[in-house]
Task: structure prediction
Amino acid sequence: MTPDQMRDASLLELFRLEAEAQTQVLNAGLMALERNPTQADQLEACMRAAHSLKGAARIVDLEAGVRVAHVMEDLLEAARQGHVRLQPDHVDALLQGSDLLLRIGRDADWADNAGREFIQALIARLQGEAVEPVAKQEPLEPLIPQAPAAPLLSALPVTQPAQTESAPFEADVPPAGDTGSDARDRVLRVSAERLDHLLDISSKSLVEFQRIKPLNDALHRLKRLQASASRALDVARESVLDGTLDTQGQTMLGEARQLLGECQQMLAGYMADFDEFGWQGGQRAQLLYDAALASRMRPFADVLAGQARMVRDLGRSLGKPVRLEVNGEATQVDRDVLERLEAPLTHLLRNAVDHGIESPSVRARLGKPEEGVIRLHARHHAGMLLLELADDGAGVDLERLRDSVVARQFASSDTAARMTEEELLAFLFLPGFSMRDQVTEVSGRGVGLDAVQHMVRQLRGGVRMEQRSGQGARFHIEVPLTLSVVRSLVVEVGGEAYAFPLAHIERMTRLQPEDIVQLEGRQHFWHEGRHVGLVSASQILQCAEGARDEAGIPVVLISERDACYGLAVERFLGERTLVVMPLDPRLGKVQDLSAGALLDDGRPVLILDVEDLFKSVGKLLGSGRVERVDRSGRQSAGAQRKRVLVVDDSLTVRELERKLLQSRGYDVAVAVDGMDGWNALRSEHFDLLITDIDMPRMDGIELVTLARRDNRLQSLPVMVVSYKDREEDRRRGLDAGADYYLAKASFHDEALLDAVVMLIGEAQG
Result:
């Protein structure tokens, strides 16, 4: 039988799985031996892994794998016997051998052809390292017996391979009736698509069962109605006991009471059964969903495969001994979250080695151990995965960062000098920002922490950074444990339900109309000592605005970096845990929306994409077409009193005119210039416009001209009040479309009020 015939596809697959499992053991053990070459347990583990791979390669007739594993085993045996003391160069060679065995397992043809010379060179290197003499030392005693010469193929473990989009997914599925340890270790390979489909069905079943509650509430209302009908019949029966009703009528009344009583008894029995069914069914639907969700969960360690090795190798290439310490490897996280965490974690780890950890000479001068340490801690908290990644390096040089901010013209020298540490660190998350002047193989390609933040935000999470100069930097990452469910604040906008993921909400509040101030044509309110821009959610989502709660204007505060906006909604519907249902891919990316879900009563709800919302708010503010949030309240007041808009850049004139008109009963709004007045005219109803001519941004002539071009404002009465009293100025105002021109030089109380009454009548018209 030829070697090719012996290489059955299923046997090669088993060897690949064996190689993936054993090379992880080799990588972890070799890095531990690099720090302490005398660890007998790690030497034994590495020898056992190499020996197992040699036997497995021999069974599937991978001669190259047999030779590589054999020389690795020889070198490790020489170290165990004390003939060789493992040094970083030895570990480099052994790690290359581990990589090579994995490559052979994945591509046997490569080993027989293109990779033959590389394999020969590595074998020669490993053989040379194995005979390098060192000072005699006592051999290490083995902690466990030697592994058998060739493990049986039936004993090869089926171990979780690296996950890809199309890779099969393995879930622990113990067979029925078997409770031993063998059953717990058995796995079943299921495609990721099937598992996703199972989770989708179970989540929909859970949502459907939640609809039983409102149905149960309706049955209770029916029971109360029957009780009321029974009492009404009792009252009717008592009222006819004096004999005013004939015998037939009394008989019919008695039969009605009897039938109603039987209905009540039947309903009570059915309701008891329904309650039991609802509770049991709900529990089973929840258990089904939890089981399906748990089968998608993987230990956090899965995302760390190769990361410790990457940190070690990168440090070696930069001349920096570095190790990665991980706490919380068993923390369970959704498979999709793990896959999407790998890229940002890899970037942060590389960044820590390259930017954070100092060279050994610098660390020694600072009194630090020559070996740098990066610590990664994972834990659960309130349904979220919390990650802390910290290094013991130099931290961020704030003065260099300040200089980079100025050099890249993000801020002036004076502004940068006044920035706090938090404000400076925020620049590290800007696209393309780097403190490196030159591109390197490790970093400096313009893909910085902004990419990390973007990837984390796509997971509906957040990232923040803190540092202590000379003592390292720390990153805090918070992401959901699963993307299948999301804890959200559900609100109503335009009569429809929308959900804000809680991870992106700073807080929720209620505003009164007097809390809202107008600044530079935009509405703001005070929050924790700063002005926050206020925008109507209905305008962002392009839907008609409905009636709001009487208790105030519900506002959701969303924040990103140092930006914060308030989105006014119609009402808060409360917190909900929503089962995420992706939008139909045929729709493409829908602006401001990320997914859909169903509420407990079966109503659909759209989950908002907060990152998109920030872009939409920015575009809206830049357009200058922001509608006033409190316009509905003012319109209701204007239905009783006529409304006047006063536009003047002089505070004194504005206040004088406002007080005069209010004293006569008019409802008055003010604007600081023509642009502010134009925004007000487009978003609110007024019965009269009073404007000055000379104003910044937009003068009165331009304002009147724009109003007359707008079909909705063509009939709006307009009065110009100006210090300019020349005939040409009066003619300009009237030609633009003004109905009345009043010179401020001849201005007095009665002149203004008489003109207003002439144009629109009394305030209570």
Remarks:
- Confidence is low (pLDDT under 50) at residues 132-167, 172-184, 631-639.
- The chain has five domains: 3-138, 208-297, 306-480, 485-623, 638-760.
- Residues 638-760 form a domain with the Rossmann fold fold (CATH 3.40.50.2300).
